[in-house]
Amino acid sequence: MHSFGYRANALLTVAVTILALMCAIASLSDNFNSPTPSAQVQVLNINWFQKHQDGNDEISLTLNISANLQSLFTWNTKQVFVFLAAEYETPMNSLNQVSLWDGIIPAKEHAKFWIHTSNKYRFIDQGSNLRGKDFNLTLHWHVMPKTGKMFADKIVMSGYRLPQDYR
Ligand SMILES: *[C@@H]1O[C@H](CO)[C@@H](O)[C@H](O)[C@H]1NC(C)=O
Ligand SMILES: *[C@@H]1O[C@H](CO)[C@@H](O)[C@H](O)[C@H]1NC(C)=O
């Protein structure tokens, strides 16, 4: 006959083993979770478009940013930082990146959203390169986990063009 102590110990061993297994499965499922986020951005309006006295172009846009980033959230996600950048090429730089908007998504329930907004940060070029410029709008994100490494990715939306004339 087994003593009570022996049985308790055996139970504990089973419990610990199951717990370890569950942890392993959880972190594996986090690694193998392949997120399928989506985003669309419409430029609803060009509010104004000017050349400053120093020669730099600046434009103000009204945007409709919509995204579904719910699949980025797992049991291990603390929050997600997102920003929308205008990206374009100039003779000086192959990549100019101007952040237009950002936000912090604290939970999965808030990760499917649309926002109608003018650019939160100024869209200024280091020169006068914006007239008629083709550009991309890229939604970047950084996933901050509860444990483990942060990771980042993006969705590039191409095919946008700025107006030919100041207004
Ligand atoms: C913004 O986009 C969303 C999703 O595409 C759409 O449902 C909504 O009506 C749009 N809002 C405006 C103001 O265009
Ligand atoms: C814009 O997006 C297109 C298509 O993904 C890409 O080929 C191009 O290099 C991008 N332009 C910039 C300036 O990042």
UniProtKB/TrEMBL annotation:
Domain of life: Eukaryota
UniProtKB keywords: Endoplasmic reticulum, Membrane, Signal-anchor, Transmembrane, Transmembrane helix
The UniProt record lists the keyword Cytoplasm: no
Membrane-topology annotation of the record: Single-pass type II membrane protein
InterPro entries, alphabetized: SPC3 (IPR007653)
This protein's GO CC annotations: signal peptidase complex
Gene Ontology biological process terms from the UniProt entry: protein targeting to ER; signal peptide processing
Coiled coil residues, start to end: none
Localization terms from the record: Endoplasmic reticulum membrane
Function: Essential component of the signal peptidase complex (SPC) which catalyzes the cleavage of N-terminal signal sequences from nascent proteins as they are translocated into the lumen of the endoplasmic reticulum. Essential for the SPC catalytic activity, possibly by stabilizing and positioning the active center of the complex close to the lumenal surface.
Family membership noted in the UniProt record: Belongs to the SPCS3 family.
Identification of the protein by name: Signal peptidase complex subunit 3
Species per Swiss-Prot/TrEMBL record: Punica granatum
